[in-house]
Amino acid sequence: MGRRRAMRTDPQDGAILLFVLLVLAMLVPVAILSTRTVQVDLSGSSRLRNGVQAESLALSGIRMVHWALARDLEKDTERAVFVDHVGEDWASFFDSEGRGAGGFETGEVAGRIVDEQSRFPINRLLDGNGTVRPEYEQTLRNLLEGPLFELEPEAAGELIASIADWMDDDSDLRSENSAEEEQYREAGVMCGPRNAPFMSLDELRLVYGMTDDVFNGRDGMPGLKDLVTTAIFDMVNINSADIFVLQAMARDIPQDTALEVARAMVAFRVDPWHHDFLDRGDWYREVAVDGAGFVSFPLGGTSTSLFRAEVEGRVGGVSRRALGLFSRANRYGEDVSDADVVELDRLELQ
Question: What is the four-CA torsion angle of 159, 160, 164, 167, rounded to 10 degrees?
Fold first, then answer.
């Protein structure tokens, strides 16, 4: 047998192998990082695309609201009865069983339509000369002193005076404890009163003497931000107004009785059997509560021309909101288009 030859190992071979392993060790993290970067980029692009689609869906919902309000007025015109209440189709348009809600090919649309004239019009507190309108002042006072906020008469009067001072165009104090620009500065508030009607409810929060409990509400109850509006109109729709707004609007009966009447009114108007009564301006007299036969609502109406839409579009976990304020005419007939009777006065995207 021949002798087996021993294999010779070149030292350079080990060096090359070590070099290759080192290169691989460096390339693997780079590859992983690059893959992660691509994934992040794709995720960001996906969220951007979903956001654009969600906004488009929200705007589509706004257009659907336009259609719903026009159809409602068309029905009223056919019946020659102009009335708006929470039992009508527009009020449930975005409910789970409503025709406006549900899935689209790209995502979902949800939202609600609110009667803006169900709220107290804070900008009607003063007339064009800066004089307080008695009926609106009394309604606001009843709201502040009533069971919701329970302010003492003096505190309610001072807050109303501060609200009026915010709105009027002079620098004269309406009471010893109300405020104009000097009082705001002394209180450390950077801005003074607008000296003009409220542009948004956020301004109401800045009024001298306004508290969180009054503005936001407490213990799950509504605050002024939920019960008043900066929209300008004269009559509040008793067919959709909040129970505490109804209580504040009631006249000719004690305020403790007014709350009971308001509760009964809310129960009455949601009953489908009573919907045919709601176009009558005095339907509240049908309510079976002591005192209902004597109550009056000087600021009460049964229809509205202002609606607020809150619509949300959702795509792949991304949502976008659209808020719209619609005004609606009280006519619908031949040669009158949807655009003539329903107008989008304000649109805000969030």
Answer: 70
pTM of the model: 0.82
Question: 120-230 adopts what CATH topology?
Answer: Ribonucleotide Reductase Protein R1; domain 1 (1.10.40)
What is the rounded distance in angstroms from the CA atom of residue 90 to the CA atom of residue 216?
27
- Pairwise CA distance, residues 83 & 278, whole Å: 7
What number does CATH give the domain 46-116+305-349?
3.30.1300.30
Q: What angle do CA 272, 275, 279 make, to 5 degrees?
A: 170
Q: Could you tell me the two tokens for 206?
A: 């800045």
Q: What would the pLDDT profile of 98-148 be if each residue is shown by its tens digit? A: 455 555 677 889 999 999 999 999 999 999 888 999 999 999 999 999 999
∠ at Cα 273 (268, 279), nearest 5°? 70
| Residues written for the chain | 350
Which position has the token pair 């959709």?
240
Domain boundaries, the chain: 46-116+305-349, 120-230
Alpha carbon distance 227, 215 (integer Å): 10
Alpha-carbon dihedral angle through residues 8, 10, 14, 19, given to the nearest 10 degrees: -160
Three-state DSSP class for 100? coil
Question: Tokens 């000719």, residue?
Answer: 252
145-178 pLDDT tens trace: 999 999 999 999 999 999 998 898 877 667 666 6
Greatest Cα-to-Cα distance within the chain, rounded to the nearest angstrom: 131
- Give tens-digit pLDDT for 16-41: 666 666 666 665 665 565 555 555 55
Per-residue CA distances from 308 to 111, 294, 324, 326 (Å): 11, 33, 6, 6
Give tens-digit pLDDT for 328-339. Answer: 986 655 555 555
CA distance 149 to 137: 16
- Kindly list the distances between the CA atom of residue 161 and the CA atoms of 188, 210, 273, 336, in Å, as whole numbers in the listed order: 20, 11, 43, 45
User: Tell me, what's the pLDDT at 42?
Assistant: 47
Specify the pLDDT at position 277.
Answer: 94
Give the integer Cα–Cα distance in Å for 70 and 337.
9
